[in-house]
Design a protein that fits this description.
Blueprint (H helix, E strand, L loop, with lengths): L2 E4 L9 E6 L7 E7 L13 E3 L9 E4 L3 H16 L11 H13 L6 H18 L4 H22 L3
Antiparallel strand pairs: 1-5, 2-3, 2-4, 3-5
Helix pairs in contact: 1-4, 2-3, 3-4
Length: about 160
């Protein structure tokens, strides 16, 4: 099931599409990212075929077909670590600990922002999954939704 994320608050139609084809036979795409001319720079860290074919959707829309673990790895590497000045580290695969560390880094010397609050929410959900008080699939969907909200709030704060 694809995961829909929004990495900009821009409502302009996309002019460029980045599609990364999957290497597995069970899904044709890993992801599809749509960006307008003004936000093309956001694609710098995204690999895949760049085209204008099929453009016209909303700028910043990511349709992600990768498994949950791959989405989380990518999210941490391309968004969370740069956002928190290259932290948090992997925490031996403990998602809740990594999200909690991100929250703590963002609130160490200031009041929590919407981004930090959404990270805290994602960390609490990940903790509930680990504790077994939230079903895995439902919890993963909630973590992704919280991180998507955090990413969109961050984009808005940066003017993207």
């Amino acid at each position: 099931m694809p995961i829909l994320r929004q990495i900009t608050t821009c409502s302009e139609p996309s002019t460029v599409v980045i599609e990364r084809r999957s290497l597995t036979s069970d899904r044709p795409l890993d992801y599809r990212l749509e960006l307008c001319r003004r936000h093309r720079w956001l694609a710098e860290n995204w690999t895949g075929r760049r085209t204008s074919e099929g453009a016209g959707g909303r700028c910043g829309t990511v349709t992600d077909h990768r498994p949950y673990a791959r989405v989380m790895e990518s999210h941490a590497a391309l968004w969370l670590r740069p956002l928190t000045a290259n932290g948090p580290e992997d925490h031996d695969g403990d998602l809740a600990a990594a999200l909690r560390a991100g929250y703590e880094l963002l609130t160490a010397d200031r009041e929590p922002t919407g981004v930090a609050i959404a990270l805290d929410h994602a960390a609490r959900i990940a903790e509930a999954i680990t504790a077994g008080t939230l079903p895995l699939a439902e919890g993963q969907a909630q973590v992704l939704a919280a991180l998507s909200a955090a990413e969109t709030l961050d984009a808005g704060a940066r003017g993207a």
